Amino acid sequence: MNAVILAIGDELVSGASSDTNSTYLSRELAALGIATRSVHVLRDDADAIAAEINRAAAAADFLLITGGLGPTADDLTRHGLARAMGAELVLNEPSLERIEAFFAKRGRTMRAGNRIQAMFPEAAEVLENDIGTAPGIAAVVGSARVFVLPGVPQEMRRMFKRGVVPRLPRERSAIVQRVVRCFGAGESDVAAKIDDLMERGAEPEVGITVSSGLISIRITAHAGNPEDAERRATIVAQEVKRRVGHLVIGEGSATLAAVVGSALREARQTLATAESCTGGLIGALVTEVPGASDYFLGGIVAYANDVKRAGLGVPEAVLEKHGAVSEPAATAMAEGCRQRLQSHWALSATGIAGPRGGTPDKPVGLVFVALAGPAGTRAERHVFSGDREVIRRRSARAALDLLRRALRPDTTASGDEHG
User: Fold this and answer.
1) Among 160, 140, 145, 151, residue whose Cα is nearest residue 26
2) Which of 147, 198, 244, 356 is the 20 to 30 A CA-CA neighbour of 313?
3) Where does residue 303 rank: exposed (0-12), middle (13-18), buried (19+ CB within 10 A)?
4) pLDDT at 23 over 50
5) Whole-angstrom Cα distance, residue 285 to residue 301?
6) Per-residue pLDDT averaged across 55-65, rounded?
7) CATH (residue range 256-407)
8) Nearest in space to 327 (alpha carbons), one of 380, 403, 388
9) What is the pLDDT of residues 76-97, one digit of tens each?
10) Mean of the pLDDT values across residues 218-224?
11) CATH 3.40.980.10 fits 2-167, yes or no
């Protein structure tokens, strides 16, 4: 079985808000054995909504719609559904009473505009909303089951679990998704290692997404039951990890910070950071992990050269001869940090995040990261592309990956990363 998801709202089309609801629904449907064929974002336009509902209903078993159930003039999803069904909107008295009670419980008087939220296409079912004023709608268009949910994420998720899932047929195929996460090479380099697994029409399906250098390899297996789907996904995941090798940081939602933190905790070792171009981002990523206080001592943000000298002990001769963006400077920053904070390991990052400041010899995106540890200090040179935020985030992750590989001596160095 398959589904189409429609997200309704001018704010989504304009980019003023992000469509997180569709991501959630697609993931939840997959866990239920229902594949999402497509996701569409539409403006608040009743005719356009009606047309898209009819198109989607002809192509899918289920249609899930979010947004446009509010009380204002631009909330037109119910109107679009009614037109697609060829039905009139009629008042549902029990829903109106629940909405009035919702306001009364909070000591407020319901405005006349909220009355529209109790209007439903004839023959449609009401999906109750016990934490908001917008009831959902269950209906049939052609041979497709249609579910309309509020756009507020908390309300939408609660209604999906309580109102939609029980209405789905019990007999479904199984879909299992696995994600292998990698870092330390470009997307095309990773894809080249698994290109035959990514051929269109292959089963399980394999695809790649990338965000600030972190590569996620998605494996989606379909089968008649969960056990077979899990077995197929596992076989391909193991093959992916075998081919990608040392670039693999983990599965699922694994992050470099979490992997590094786990290794530090297991080794009973500590970490400190010295940051210039990343401005504390390495430390921020490390402390996003619960329990980071077990191993993270702190960091020094040394943006100005005076702070590099006074706070980290970077020699004046290094700054004069090589500059702040250099391998010797990154090395001195890491060593000075480790000495001052008395940590087992210290990471440093210095570079040119842009958009200004680059030269032919030192372009925007040039970053040096270094790691000082029990066996000495190692530095790496990277040239990253992207805007300032992307460069900073990739720099922080490159530093964490340097530590990951040091904590796992069985891995192989990634070398310079360009692009």
Assistant:
1) 160
2) 356
3) middle
4) yes
5) 14
6) 97
7) 3.90.950.20
8) 380
9) 999 999 999 999 999 999 999 9
10) 92
11) yes
**136-141 β-sheet, strand order:** 35-42, 2-8, 62-66, 144-149, 136-141, 125-127
Domain boundaries, the chain: 2-167, 174-251, 256-407
Architecture (CATH level 2) of domain 174-251: 2-Layer Sandwich (3.30)
- In whole angstroms, what is the distance from residue 57 CA to residue 85 CA? 11
CB 296 within 8 Å of CB 286: yes
Q: How many CB atoms lie within 10 A of CB 306?
A: 10
User: Parallel, antiparallel, or unpaired: how do β-strands 2-8 and 35-42 relate?
Assistant: parallel
Low-confidence winner among 88-92, 366-370, 409-413 (lowest mean pLDDT): 409-413
Q: What is the chain's mean pLDDT, rounded?
A: 94
Q: What is the DSSP string of 188-255?
A: HHHHHHSGGGG-TT-SSEEEEEEETTEEEEEEEEEESSHHHHHHHHHHHHHHHHHHHGGGEEEETT--
Closest-CA residue to 9 (of 71, 64, 56, 77): 77
Q: Provide the token pair at 195.
A: 């290109």
Question: Containing H/E element for 145?
Answer: strand 144-149
In whole angstroms, what is the distance from residue 11 CA to residue 42 CA?
10
Angle between helices 46-59 and 77-85 (to 10 degrees): 50
Helix (H) or strand (E) holding 163: none
- pLDDT digits 0-9 by tens, 105-130: 999 989 999 999 999 999 999 999 99
Cα torsion 52, 55, 58, 59: sign: negative
| Closest of 257, 259, 219, 260 to residue 237, by C-alpha | 219
Q: Kindly report the number of other CB atoms within 10 A of residue 409's CB atom.
A: 8
pLDDT over threshold 70, residue 11 = yes
Residue 402: which H helix or E strand, with range?
helix 388-407
pLDDT at 261 over 90: yes
Burial environment of residue 150 by CB neighbours within 10 A (0 to 12, 13 to 18, 19 or more): buried
pLDDT attached to residue 173: 80
pLDDT of residue 410: 65
- Which of the two residues, 120 and 31, has the higher pLDDT score? 120
Give residue 411's pLDDT. Answer: 53
